[in-house]
C-alpha cells in the first residue's frame, strides 16, 4: 500500500527563478549547495525533462544510501511540478519497494514561492523515518538555494 509524507514552506524567491534553478539546473546546483549530502549528480539519460535519469552520488559520511538512480516521472513546466522516482540503489536498498518525491512550486506573490513536498513510498517495514527525513532534506536544500539566489541578486 502506497504511503505518503507531506511538508511545505515558503521562500522569498520568485517562482520562475526557483523553478529554473531547481528543476532545470539541479545537476549543477545540488552538489554545489549541498556537498555535505551529495557528492555529484550526473545526467545519464535525457535532457533534464520528463524521462531524464540522474545518477546521484550520496557519498557523504552522513549517508548510508551510497548512490541512487532517479528518473523524472513528472515534469510540468506550466504547473511548476517535478517528480522523481528512485529506480536503483539508495532507498530501494533499505527496504523500500517504491520511492518517489514530488515537488510543487506555487506563486505566493511576485517574489515569494510556496513549496509543497510529497514523498510517496511503499515499504515492508512497519515504521521508518526515511520519508520524513527526505522531505526535511529537500526543504533544507531549497532553503540553501533561496539563500544562494538572494545573494546572487544583491
Explain how this protein is built:
This protein is an alpha+beta fold. The protein has one domain (3-153): START domain (Alpha-D-Glucose-1,6-Bisphosphate, Chain A, domain 4, 2-Layer Sandwich), CATH 3.30.530. It contains 3 helices and 7 strands. It has helices spanning 15-24, 26-33, 130-153, and strands spanning 3-11, 40-45, 53-58, 66-76, 81-89, 96-109, 112-123. The chain has a 7-stranded antiparallel sheet. α1 packs across α3 (130-153). The longest helix is centred in the last third of the chain and has 24 residues, at 130-153. The mean pLDDT is 91.
Mind sketching the topology for me?
Layout: E1 3-11, H1 15-24, H2 26-33, E2 40-45, E3 53-58, E4 66-76, E5 81-89, E6 96-109, E7 112-123, H3 130-153
Antiparallel strand pairs: 1-7, 2-3, 3-4, 4-5, 5-6, 6-7
Helix pairs in contact: 1-2, 1-3
Pfam families: Bet_v_1 (PF00407)
Protein name: Phytohormone-binding protein-like
Family: Belongs to the BetVI family.
